[in-house]
Design a protein that fits this description.
This protein has helices spanning 3-16, 24-54, 59-66, 71-83, 93-101, 106-118, 121-131, 133-156, 183-218, 221-228, 235-243, 250-262, 267-279, 282-288, 294-319. With 320 residues, the chain is an all-alpha fold. The chain has one domain. It starts with a helix and ends with a helix.
């Protein structure tokens, strides 16, 4: 799909600018220009497609639909709903509170909180463009599994008393209908939404690709492969521990994943790092500290972190 664009970049960088394709600077500049435009195009197309589909549903509809349903069913729906909400770990918290206010079980709300930053359409779009549909499908399946199982475990522990914020419950039954719009109105709304999201994340794509381009051109392959390749059995654990203190969305970290895997990092290790960065972050913990007890926050991080580590090792086992 992007072969024509790669040819244009080849002409621009190597023929017009006379940069050596074997040099670090030539390789880095080519990577930066090609990947930035490629990822921007993928984001516009896939975010629009998902936004168009989302015009049939709103958050009130999901809250009303989940109310009164079984916990396991709710966890599955909440995890799937996380795919179509383009939130980072911190931005997902307001809707998390809305679920609590609607008296939706705590485990269900955590399934959403885990899934939203990990499985959103931005991550899916970039994964699809960089690694193909098979890797993307496996990632989505594993991401949903972590969200559902993590929510199920938290729900079974009956820790509702660990919610610190006094949230006024909604006493009446929630009611919401599927949004009724014409196709033209849906397309217009989806485009406005896509453009707004793209404006917010395009700079992060450039920054991520810029760092990735530097690594691509200047960091030796052997250096990365030595510490994160097959020779290090603790590579996945190290990647998750390193990812937690960082705070970024999928648009910022995904270009790094492409470069790191090209340099020799196992794909499962790289995706574990990305999951830790997007689904677990220190800023998220600081915000949650005002809402949840440290006991529940610690449990949340341990459960999700353990699930991400298991996924990393499974990914590496399946693909190698």
């Amino acid at each position: 799909m992007f072969s024509w664009w790669e040819k244009i970049v080849d002409i621009l960088v190597y023929d017009r600018w006379h940069l050596d394709p074997q040099s670090a600077v030539g390789s880095a500049v080519h990577f930066f220009i090609f990947d930035t435009i490629k990822i921007w195009m993928l984001l516009l197309m896939i975010i629009f497609a998902v936004s168009f589909l989302r015009t049939w549903f709103n958050t009130e509809y999901v809250r009303a639909h989940l109310q009164g349903k079984s916990a396991l069913y709710g966890q599955m729906v909440a995890a799937l709903f996380g795919i179509i909400t383009p939130f980072c770990s911190c931005s997902a918290i307001p809707l998390f509170l809305g679920f609590i206010q609607a008296r939706i079980p705590l485990g269900v709300t955590f399934s959403y909180l885990i899934s939203a930053p990990m499985n959103n359409e931005i991550a899916i779009a970039m994964l699809f463009g960089l690694f193909g549909w098979k890797i993307t499908a496996i990632y989505i399946a594993f991401g949903l599994a972590v969200a559902i199982i993590g929510g199920w475990v938290i729900g079974k522990l009956n820790m509702e008393d660990q919610i610190l914020l006094a949230v006024q419950p909604i006493e009446s039954q929630l009611h919401a209908d599927i949004v009724k719009l014409s196709l033209k109105e849906r397309a217009k709304e989806a485009w406005h939404y896509t453009y707004d999201i793209f404006k917010k994340i395009s700079i992060y794509v450039m920054l991520g690709v810029g760092v990735g381009a530097w690594i691509h051109g200047y960091i030796p392959t052997d250096f990365i492969a030595k510490y994160t390749g097959e020779g290090n059995p603790f590579a996945v654990i190290m990647a998750v521990i390193m990812g937690v203190p960082m705070y970024s969305n999928a648009a910022g970290v995904m270009p790094l994943i492409e470069v790191l895997t090209n340099k020799g990092m196992l794909l499962g290790t790289a995706l574990s790092f990305m999951m830790a960065v997007t689904a677990l972050s220190l800023p998220e913990a600081l915000i949650l500290k005002k809402i949840l007890s440290m006991k529940l926050i610690s449990l949340f991080f341990v459960i999700v972190g353990s699930g991400i580590i298991c996924i990393g090792y499974l990914f590496n086992y399946i693909l190698n």
